[in-house]
Amino acid sequence: MTASWQLWRDKRGRLSSLRIGTLGLLLMPLAKALVDAHAIIHGARPLNDLIHRAGFWALVFLGVTLAVTPFRRIARYGNLIEVRRMLGVGAFCYIAAHLTLFTADQGFDLGKVVHEISHRWYLIVGGTAWLGLATLAATSTDGMVRRLGGLRWRRLHQAVYGIALLALIHYFQQTKADVTVPAFAASLFGWLIAYRLLAWWQQTSELSTLSLLALTIAVSINTFIGEAIGIGTAFHVSPMLVLDAAFDLDAGIRPGWEVLAAGLAVVALDFVRARWNSRAARTRAVAAE
Ligand code: HEM
Asked: Is the pTM of this model over 0.85?
């Protein structure tokens, strides 16, 4: 049996390239921080810089964890499920670092940390998401799955969607000026959640290429509309003007276009993999005759 700390080995104890690749991916932000160490140390607020990095990567890995289920179906790569837990726990490690760095920034004065968190809305929201993620990480072991029972465990872990929503609200709340990246992140999460809702509604585990295309177009239209209403309300301008500006590509690529491009790449992958699979099945059938 493989010891649980040997993250690079699969359940049978063999070296796994998928697990090694995932570990590499999870360590990449650390490597990037080391490369940027000089700039971070000599920056205006080194700890704040690290708080931002840890929070950002926690959100990214939370998204990657949620992407495992749709992606393994679309890419017809079932083995991906093997690394879902590693990705989720990785996201939690970054969020634990996020809070630890915040505590360091408050001079490790726990009274001040609690006071800050309970007196600022964006920290109350972030703190609630933090507790949620900690609960999911603590119940992610095989022992806890057995203890809770499959159904209760799955129900508990469905809280991840609410936690992701809180994390995104926290991200928007602390963003002072340009909301382009938070809006893009929100629309990617929107795509991942809409994928599950559509699969549930169609009572299927595999959406057709056409459904994926419709989903992508609907999410990108929603992103354009949501951004227009958000910016329009915040800056007291007509949302129609903001919407108009989104089509002026010289002024910058808006998140609606980005999510459309990402979604179309997924649609293309599904199209290719579906044809590839049916050709392989036909070849196997002919060989068996
Ligand atoms: C007790 C819990 C938390 C605390 C105390 C906290 C604190 C903070 C602070 C102080 C900032 C920087 C704000 C600024 O400079 O004005 C920040 C930013 C951020 N936090 Fe949190 N946070 C918490 C939970 C979370 C959680 C659970 C997530 C996501 C899973 C998260 C994701 C982020 C992101 C994405 C940013 C912005 C990063 C960027 O600018 O790229 N935080 N947080």
From this structure: yes
